[in-house]
Specification:
heterodimer, A: 280 residues, alpha/beta, Rossmann fold, 11 helices, B: alpha/beta, Four Helix Bundle (Hemerythrin (Met), subunit A), 434 Repressor (Amino-terminal Domain), flat
């Protein structure tokens, strides 16, 4: 992930193809054509030199990311309710386990809701985590109505004075309108019970995702109130660059990033740290 | 849902622009190449491959003297079609040898859909008369084994349930179990891993080296971006891949990662995952993907899907009606019902060519389908058989009787006309292959 350094190197070589190469590096990291073209236009207009090219790119990225607020939203009353949504296989269940671990270590009373009643053994997967982390979980049998599980979870959380309720949901691709409507129903169940939408509705996005990430955000956020993104599976081979055009276009902040397979590998998003990681 | 479809639409826009201008300058060609490149990139085609495709299209365009051509758009589309097709290669069936013990291993990143795919593949092979045994081989993800076992139980598939001890030992036991119980295909569902994680990749290599495996298939998510190239490279370094399976092909991702996989490995994509149900696995046909890219729709997939849902007799009947021009509203209603059976319009839309003038979005709406049925039920026998007699006053009556507006009746009739026209457009082609073939 020595992206910025590599770009700089190319620029220093100063061959006639350097601008094209820079564009390609941005493309390779899924920044998207639009961002890449705008950046190139900018360096041409501003007569950016070899010396400040790295700073210019960093600044452009920083400006986009700083335009949103990554703060985690907690209401004044408990429980805080976080709903996790996204396409299949992005890491919703694992992210929930990581966050549960994080908040539990901060002394919060955390509870899980196994809202994925569709995928075989999804509840089991979350239950194993709940047992490992020694926190309560509300679940029903496979195939039950997810709205009903969520309703149970909310009741249980209220009666047990839970601080944070983390609700899993089944993965769904953005083209399945009926399944997206099911999410709206879950949102309504929550709103009815706590008198407000979930404090956080987090879209879990795989860092490998290409330009389809834009469609995911656009369609999910048109159906439910997406308040932030959790970027998962970030590492040396996946930069999560797609968040740059996403944040630029939709203004939805990235709130957490997951950087590894261990339970503690989750952190709150921080622009400086993210850019530092890109710089390698 | 429409893999490559935006690419198709974008190209159509580009070439419409070109077409309306009459004769072309070299600058026009350059601009169109630039737009092709952008479109390929937006479809997640790796930038290296996009560059190569564009360079080849440019070279060929020059050779064919496109500037002088009266049909430059068609010519460029054909060149592009051929270049992409070259990369995609030919369709290739899964390699299962009869009267022998076969092993198929699924490998890939976390969350790519290996476990679901393993169950789908087992179902597919079972329907072909094979005796598949699912072998859970993911000792890492919590409940991964439970997931495969549950999938097997729910779908009446066989699964190897002994799974403690050293992985190699478990596999040896599974092989003995296959031997004793006459299973001829073992499907190994390996744990998700990153291609840069040398430790777990070495483990995979050990498995590949210890056993004779017929098919080692890389399972990749269609929504993957530029990184697909490196992922395929990484896996190829450790294990001898024989093919790929692309999941979530029903998402709106444009699937340029398929080109990356082919480009790096040279191995065929064998299947695509097109939904969450156990039957949602399809054989991958490269021609169909290319056909979509250049705007020819995916008739073959549609026909195959229809074949599975509609009985042969019904199909023959429909074909005759189209031939004889007697396709009426009753048939239209039957078609809509069949479409519903096939998983609704959204699943079919991805395989449909664009039907000019037909408002497919209206049909995609479940409510609209119900309304359409109500409208047809509200018609007399004569009206159903010869819709052309439906005039203003008849429309009013039908609207009142079926609880829809006059406007909706008009949209409905227009859709029927367009659908009929489209069906007739296909009637002169002797076979689906011919429809798909380029000029």
């Amino acid at each position: 992930m020595k992206l910025l350094k590599t770009i700089k190197k190319i620029f220093e070589k100063n061959d006639s193809n350097s601008i094209e190469n820079i564009e390609e590096f941005m493309l390779e990291n899924n920044f998207g054509v639009e961002f890449a073209e705008n950046f190139i236009e900018k360096i041409r207009e501003e007569r950016v030199t070899d010396k400040n090219i790295e700073e210019t790119l960093k600044e452009s990225i920083k400006n986009i990311l700083d335009n949103t607020d990554p703060k985690i939203h907690f209401a004044n009353s408990i429980p805080a309710v976080f709903l996790f949504v996204g396409t299949n296989g992005t890491g919703k269940t694992t992210s929930i386990a990581k966050l549960a671990h994080l908040y539990k270590n901060q002394g919060k009373k955390v509870m899980l809701v196994a809202g994925d009643t569709f995928r075989a053994a999804a509840s089991k997967q979350l239950e194993i985590w709940a047992t490992k982390l020694n926190i309560p979980i509300v679940m029903q049998k496979e195939g039950s109505d997810p709205g009903a599980v969520v309703f149970d979870g909310l009741n249980s959380a209220v009666s047990k004075n839970i601080d944070i309720l983390l609700i899993d949901s089944a993965g769904r691709v953005e083209t399945k309108k009926n399944l997206l409507k099911e999410l709206q129903k879950i949102e309504r169940v929550i709103e009815k019970k706590i008198g407000r939408k979930p404090d956080e509705t987090l879209l879990v996005l795989d860092a490998y995702t290409g330009q389809n990430g834009l469609a995911q955000i656009e369609i999910f956020s048109s159906m439910v109130n997406i308040s932030g993104i959790i970027l998962t599976k970030i590492d040396g081979s996946s930069s999560g660059g797609i968040i740059i055009p996403i944040v630029q276009k939709y203004g939805i902040p990235v709130k957490f990033i997951c950087t590894g397979e261990n339970i503690e590998d989750i952190e709150q998003f921080n622009t400086e740290a993210f850019i530092k990681m890109l710089s390698g | 849902m429409l893999i490559f479809d935006n690419l198709k639409i974008n190209l159509q826009i580009i070439f419409k622009k070109l077409r309306s201008k009459g004769k072309l300058s070299n600058e026009d060609i350059k601009n169109s190449l630039r737009e092709i490149r952008v479109t390929l990139l937006e479809a997640d085609v790796n930038y290296k491959i996009a560059k190569e495709i564009v360079d080849k299209v440019a070279e060929e365009a020059k050779k064919q003297n496109i500037v002088e051509s009266l049909t430059p758009a068609e010519q460029i589309i054909t060149i592009l079609y051929n270049e992409i097709k070259n990369i995609l290669g030919d369709a290739s069936p899964i390699n299962i040898e009869p009267n022998k013990r076969n092993l198929v291993m699924l490998a890939g990143l976390q969350g790519s859909g290996k476990t679901t795919t393993a169950a789908k593949l087992a179902k597919f092979l079972k329907e072909q008369g094979k005796r598949p045994l699912l072998i859970p081989f993911d000792f890492k993800r919590p409940a991964a084994m439970e997931q495969l076992i549950a999938l097997a139980k729910n779908n009446n598939l066989e699964v190897f349930e002994e799974m403690t001890g050293n992985p190699i030992l478990v596999l040896k036991k599974a092989l003995a179990y296959m031997e004793n119980n006459q299973f001829n295909v073992g499907l190994i569902d390996s744990a998700g891993r990153k291609e840069i994680d040398t430790e777990t990749m070495e483990e995979l290599r050990t498995v590949a080296n210890t056993f004779t495996i017929n098919e080692t298939l890389l399972v990749l998510d269609s929504t993957i971006g530029q990184g697909a190239l490196k992922i395929a490279e990484g896996f190829e370094q450790y294990i001898p891949l024989t093919g790929g399976i692309f999941t979530k092909y029903d998402s709106s991702a444009k699937g340029g990662s398929i080109l990356s996989f082919r480009y790096v490995t040279g191995k065929p994509v064998k299947f695509i995952g097109v939904g969450e149900k156990i039957d949602d696995l399809e054989i991958f046909h490269p021609e169909r993907v290319v056909s979509k890219i250049v705007g020819r729709g995916d008739l073959a997939t549609l026909a195959e899907k229809a074949e599975r849902t509609i009985s042969q007799e019904e199909g023959k009947d429909l074909f005759e009606k189209i031939q004889n021009d007697t396709f009426d509203l009753n048939d239209y209603k039957n078609q809509l019902e069949a479409i519903k059976k096939m998983g609704g319009f959204s699943s079919i839309l991805s395989s449909m060519p664009v039907i000019p003038g037909m408002n497919l979005n209206a049909l995609n709406d479940e409510k609209m389908l119900i309304k359409t049925e109500a409208v047809i039920n509200g018609m007399t026998k004569e009206e159903k058989a010869s819709p052309e007699i439906i005039d203003g006053s008849r429309k009013k009556r039908i609207a009142k009787g079926s609880g829809v507006t006059n406007h909706e009746i008009n949209v409905f009739l227009k859709n029927y006309t367009m659908f009929k026209k489209f069906m007739q457009g296909t009637k002169n082609a002797k076979s689906i292959d011919q429809i798909l073939k380029l000029r």
